[in-house]
Design a protein that fits this description.
This protein is mostly beta strands and about 475 residues long. The protein has four domains: about 130 residues, Carboxypeptidase-like, regulatory domain (Immunoglobulin-like); about 110 residues, no CATH class; about 90 residues, no CATH class; about 130 residues. It is built from no helices and 37 strands. The strands form nine sheets. The chain has a five-stranded mixed β-sheet with strand order 1-11-10-2-5, with no helix packed on it. Strand 30 and strand 31 form a beta hairpin.
Amino acid sequence: MNRLVSRVVVLGLLAGSAWLGCKGGKEGTETRVRLVHASPDLPKSDVDVVGISSELFSAVEYGGTTDYRAIAPGTFEFVLRASALGGVSPALVTSEPIEVAEGASITLVAAGFLLSDEPEDSLRVLAFDDAFAEPAGGARARFVHAISNAGPLLLEVGDDGDAELGPVERFAATPPEGFELAAGAPVHVSLLAGTPPVPVGGFTVPQLEQGETYYLVATGVGALDELRGPALIVSGDAGTVEFIEQDPRVYLLHASPDAPALDVFAGDEEVADDLAFGELSGPIPLAPGSVALDFFVHEEGAARPAGAPAAGAVTGELSAGDTYLLVATGFVGEGRSPAFELVTVADEFRPFNPLLARLRALHASPGTTTLTLGAVTEGGRVLPLPGLGALAYLQASAPEGAELPPLELRMGLVPIGESETAAKFEIDSQAGLRAIGVIAGVRAPSGSEPPLQMILVDTSQSPWTAAPLVNER
């Protein structure tokens, strides 16, 4: 374990920090320091300075930004400790000596994983000089990449498709002078990664004050190709303005029996391309709230077609930080009923026994009566499973899912009021599986329409996957 090893990263600045007592006020000539807690597994922490008995900061929580504290110029080492009910807890990390220049204003960022011993992502202290240029009519901001296990990121301000800033390496920041942000209205920013860059997370920054300066600190847990659960800490002069969870992410499943392969647009942006029946899109970041989507018959290219869409639908209410399955079902053919629409299903599987599986079911077979999902016995009977009972069209079972043993289970769909199964299939309910079984297709297909079936959407890993279960009837 090397948590006690001294680590600090001093980036683009003259100094680190120290303390002498009182809170600092508005940035001026005094020397001052503050801390942003951006380590996702670091508990509530106290901060002190080697050689000084008093605490610098106490009980700083994840996502929090302390007040500035006045300091004297000098060279200091900062110590992070878990907040204790009494006494002094052991040091979790101690910084290397940081020289503090007279008149400097310093923001320290606690970043990295406490529980990691790897040098590339372990707990550390980042230090930044608040050397912002004067705002030119709006606000001024600086972006800090503190997502501990994500590679280089680019930052797009607004939705113009242009990544204006970066790439920013892990545990680094944009230049000290900052960049201009509009004040007086919310601003949308996106994180992009990879080659070519693709959006991996978006955030709606709240209204900023004209003439003020801010840090946008990306934190949370991520990966090089797809961020999972990141957040954005917006720190102003007076502390954390807001801890912002990423925009909702959705996976779109094509389950409309008579629709061809589709291109899907949110406004002028293509969010899914050439999606055929039974196929699941990759994760799509959308703005919080209800979002209108347009569905076009697939064409080459990513530009929105000039004509009218084959169908349009609006999502349910989407909340920041959450992930959803959108199921496109119903008929697109003129005069056919039920008509095309979207079903929004939130990922709400509760914590569960990892030795078992959990299954949630959604009835998305247009024109099919209420169905019961159950286990098929050796004698061919279907025994309804608790939590997966009679489902009407567009109805989903309980959000937490039904527990299943880790076995290959033979399942059946029985229409209400009938004794014969309409479909039979096998589910390999492996330990730890969390899946949404989407009942799709049509019971009496015509032409090339898909028959009644179940499409199993596996939410256990990211990105989600979808696989049709063979109807053995």
